[in-house]
Amino acid sequence: MTLIAIDGPAGAGKTTLAAKFFAEFSVDKSVLVIHLDDLYDGWDNALSDALTSTLAEILQAHKTASVFTLSIFNWKTMSFDSTRNFQPSEIVIIEGVGAGQKIVRDAGATLFWLDIEPEIGLARVLQRDGFEIESQMRRWQITQDAHFAGDATRMHADHIITSQA
């Protein structure tokens, strides 16, 4: 069973790369893509111990080929208001800021790190999600940078890809 983590700053193209991997690998294997945007507890508690615990649940389920259920965050209501069941898959791809943290690397994930200039990443996110979130995104950039520094995520990447504008 294969585990892939795709990490890097907001707007770097993690979701796009995950979709490309899914298209390529799902031709002859079962593939599950988990988007951390669905698992974050809002802006302020996204990269918390709760996320690490959720990742531990995912990793254990993948290791034992078990069905698992996760609470899904609704960004409109700013609450966890639904759940989703996930089936065991030969390949699990976890993408999002925090996907490549130590617990995931220690589980044997291949880590892809995507680099992007902060202002280009910000512009991409605002174009995609709306300019009304600019103040939250600027705070998020500080939060993600602190997370990456504390975890040394980029330093542990197996592959580094630089995103272009």
Count of the separate structural domains: 1
Q: CATH superfamily name?
A: P-loop containing nucleotide triphosphate hydrolases
CATH architecture level-2 label: 3-Layer(aba) Sandwich
Q: What structural class do the secondary elements suggest?
A: alpha/beta
| Average pLDDT taken over every residue | 96
Sketch the topology as an H/E string, one letter per element: EHEHEEEHEHHE
| Main pleated-sheet profile | 5 strands, parallel
Number of beta strands? 7
Rg value: 15 Å
In which range does the helix fraction lie?
Answer: 25-40%
Order of strands, main sheet, comes to: 2-5-1-6-7
Number of helices, where a helix is a run of at least 4 consecutive DSSP H or I residues = 5
Low-confidence stretches: none
Tell me the fraction of residues in β-strands, as a range. Answer: 15-25%
Write up this protein.
With 165 residues, the chain is α/β, with parallel strands linked by helices. The protein has one domain (2-162): Rossmann fold. The chain contains five helices and seven strands. The longest helix is centred in the last third of the chain and has 18 residues, at 134-151. The chain starts with a strand and ends with a strand.
Write the layout of secondary structure elements.
Layout: E1 2-7, H1 14-25, E2 31-35, H2 49-64, E3 68-74, E4 79-86, E5 91-95, H3 102-106, E6 110-115, H4 118-129, H5 134-151, E7 159-162
Parallel strand pairs: 1-5, 1-6, 2-5, 6-7
Antiparallel strand pairs: 3-4
